[in-house]
Design brief:
Blueprint lengths: L13 H10 L4 H8 L3 H8 L7 H11 L3 H5 L3 H11 L12 H10 L1 H27 L7 H12 L5 H17 L2 H6 L4 E5 L1 H4 L4 E4 L4 E5 L4 H16 L1 H9 L6 H20 L2 H10 L4 H8 L3 H8 L13 E5 L5 E6 L28 E6 L5 E12 L7 E11 L20 E2 L42
Parallel strand pairs: 1-3, 6-9
Antiparallel strand pairs: 2-3, 4-5, 4-8, 6-7, 7-8
Length: 469
């Protein structure tokens, strides 16, 4: 497409000119007098019925002491791009919307374009709120502290600079002492491993009276290391965690309790995988989670979790989102550093491989995902297990998924040699209530705002058919 600022295309600045006039507090007559033209010509310019000539552009810049570049830069291209994104919403799928028409609308009627964008934004927000309200149902307030804690973490992209830098210093101290147990011993704390029956269901317990850190002796090596690091975080990073939370007022004390636990786990991961060392290894190993786990003595889930936190200014790595769920689809952990629109309530999309990995445990499955608005992501999913280290002891198997925006996937070993535009992505939705893909055979409920079409004589492959509009 040619640059609209070149002489080959007339320059229309109607809404921009009208906005300028109003900002200056001028009538059309006053602007006409300033520019030495007729009021009717000003009106024609503002209605985009006349293009702005080079001479008129110079007059405007000289008269009102403006930069020509600021005047001549059009909103049209930006509006065309944003309108194109909005009009890919499947709710418009049955309407023929040629790209040229969208471009003409954006270029010629930027005011209308802005109105449409605001209207769709309000619609999307209301749809989200309504879906959450319907899916939440009775008792939804019981989980409100969890959601509040998730919002706190997401707002900071799951990166906490004071904790990370202090944890890096602690990791260096621990290395000098010869390990975490030795570091604790130097501070009068002894680490002991005891049988599960003695621990009475606890994986970690601090005996303050005897200054002993007691651990379940059936913990595997990564879990044992993480529990020791978590104790160190709770003690050595206590002041830093309080400082992070001091800036926020929470609706519930439960939220604060959950965040203290989450930030201690964050600190533990940062101690086991110090930022600088880990960030360098991440690039060298091309985000190979299993290789990184072997290098740092961490589990698959621990490494995946740590990858969501690598947003130190000047040393950023690929921004990831992370989710952990069980076979019933219940989400037990959710972290977002990549702008993925998780559903606040209800199940996710069954077409996402994170819901399918239970059939082939410990096998990594990769998948390209495309949301209804056209956003593309790359996902890595695998099962992880905890507990069950002993005969008759119940274990838990969950699925975890780590994902990033499609443009970052080339940096991952899992997508080596694959160009995002050259692969077929799986069309998924955030949740059925918000997904308007009418051809989806995996749909469980109709989307909000669509009427179900009643047809007694035909049954399609999809569970619902929808009326047009």
């Amino acid at each position: 497409m040619a640059d609209p600022r070149t002489p080959s295309r007339p320059l229309y600045l109607g809404p921009r000119l009208r906005r300028l006039r109003r900002e200056l507090g001028l009538t059309q007559q006053a602007m006409a007098d300033d520019l030495e033209i007729s009021p009717s010509y000003v009106a024609l310019l503002e209605r985009n019925q006349r293009p702005v000539t080079a001479d008129m552009l110079l007059r405007l810049a000289r008269t009102y002491r403006l930069e020509i570049g600021d005047l001549a830069s059009e909103d049209g291209e930006d509006y065309a791009r944003r309108l194109g994104d909005v009009l890919r919403d499947p709710i418009f799928a049955d309407i023929d919307l040629p790209a040229l028409e969208i471009s003409d609308l954006a270029m010629s009627f930027p005011g209308v374009s802005e109105a449409l964008l605001r209207l769709h934004g309000a619609y999307a927000r209301e749809q989200q709120a309504l879906a959450e309200q319907r899916a939440a149902g009775p008792g939804a307030d019981e989980n409100e502290p969890v959601r509040e804690a998730q919002r706190f973490l997401a707002a900071r992209r799951n990166y906490f600079h004071p904790l990370d830098t202090r944890a890096e210093d602690l990791a260096a101290e621990i290395d000098k002492e010869g390990g975490a147990a030795a570091w604790l011993a130097a501070r009068g704390v002894r680490v002991r491993s005891l049988p599960p029956d003695v621990m009475m269901g606890a994986l970690r317990r601090f005996d303050r009276h005897n200054q002993q850190l007691l651990l379940d002796d059936t913990l595997d090596t990564p879990s044992r290391a993480f529990q020791i690091a978590t104790h160190i975080a709770h003690s050595a990073l206590r002041g830093d965690i309080k400082q992070v939370l001091r800036v926020e007022t929470f609706a519930s004390e439960t939220t604060r309790t959950l965040l203290v636990r989450a930030l201690a786990a964050y600190g533990a991961a940062a101690i086991l995988m110090p930022y600088g060392k880990f960030a360098r290894a991440v690039e060298q190993r091309r985000y190979d989670i299993e290789a990184l786990g072997a290098l740092f003595g961490a589990s698959f889930e621990q490494v995946a979790h740590r990858l969501t936190t690598l947003q130190r200014p000047g040393e950023e790595r690929v921004p990831f989102f992370f989710i952990r769920l069980d076979e019933a689809g219940n989400v037990s952990k959710r972290l977002d550093g990549a702008g993925f629109p998780f559903a606040a309530h209800g199940g996710g999309c069954p077409l996402w491989s994170v819901h399918q990995v239970f059939s082939r445990r410990r096998e990594i499955r990769t998948q390209w995902l495309e949301l209804p608005d056209g956003q593309r992501f790359f996902s890595i999913a695998r099962t992880v297990a905890s507990g069950g280290n002993g005969f008759g002891r119940a274990g838990v198997v969950r699925a975890v998924a780590l994902g990033c925006a499609a443009e970052h996937a080339r940096r991952l070993v899992y997508a080596a040699g694959l160009a995002p535009d050259a692969v077929e992505a799986t069309p998924i939705g955030v949740t059925c209530r918000l997904c308007h893909r009418s051809e989806c055979a995996a749909r469980s409920v109709p989307p909000i705002g669509r009427d179900v079409l009643v047809d007694d004589y035909r049954r399609g492959a999809q569970p619902f058919s929808f009326a047009d509009g």
